[in-house]
């Protein structure tokens, strides 16, 4: 059965530093689609983050590339299997040089936190109680 995937393309000022950051979060790199201008970060079987140098990113758009340290171009939200895994990923991100957003969202059935990566891209990490999701 076909499983749709998502490829999140993000401009980065330093491909090597971004590659190191995401591997420190526990993600792997697909070398087949990585080089000096691009790093293919495998988040899951269906989620891939393509970290592109700004020059390579510009090959895919005619629009101005947002300065993600000053503007929000996208909010990326990843699910987590538990509250503890939410905290763990944010802690790894901070240890790897990212910046935690101090706003914890705790609504009982849903718990989330967020961080900015080295380029200022915002990543949210959210756990939802499976019983609440099933209705």
If you had to describe this structure to a student in words, what would you say it looks like?
With 135 residues, the protein is of the alpha/beta class. 23% of the residues lie in helices and 36% in strands. It is built from four helices and eight strands. A four-stranded mixed sheet has the order 1-4-3-2. The longest helix is centred in the middle third of the chain and has 13 residues, at 83-95. The radius of gyration is 15 Å and the shape is globular. The mean pLDDT is 95.
Give a quick summary of the entry.
With 135 residues, the chain is α/β, with parallel strands linked by helices.
Segments where pLDDT lies below 50 for 5+ residues? none
Binned strand content = 35-45%
Q: Please work out how many helical segments DSSP would assign.
A: 4
Largest sheet: 4 strands, mixed
Name the features.
single chain; alpha/beta; 4 helices; 135 residues; 4-stranded mixed sheet
Secondary-structure blueprint of this entry?
Elements: E1 6-12, H1 15-24, E2 28-29, E3 38-42, E4 47-53, H2 54-57, E5 75-79, H3 83-95, E6 99-106, E7 110-116, E8 122-128, H4 130-133
Parallel strand pairs: 1-4, 5-8
Antiparallel strand pairs: 2-3, 3-4, 6-7, 7-8
């Amino acid at each position: 059965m076909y499983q749709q995937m998502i490829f999140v393309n993000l401009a980065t000022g330093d491909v090597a530093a971004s590659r190191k950051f995401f591997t420190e979060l526990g993600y792997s790199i697909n070398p087949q689609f990585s080089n000096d201008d691009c790093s293919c970060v495998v988040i899951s079987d269906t989620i891939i983050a393509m970290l592109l140098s700004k020059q390579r990113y510009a090959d895919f758009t005619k629009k101005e590339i947002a300065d993600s340290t000053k503007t929000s171009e996208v909010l990326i939200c990843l699910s987590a299997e538990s509250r503890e895994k939410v905290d763990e990923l944010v802690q790894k991100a901070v240890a790897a040089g990212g910046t935690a957003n101090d706003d914890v969202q705790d609504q009982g059935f849903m718990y989330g936190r967020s961080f900015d990566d080295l380029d200022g891209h915002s990543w949210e990490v959210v756990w939802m109680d499976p019983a609440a999701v099933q209705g």
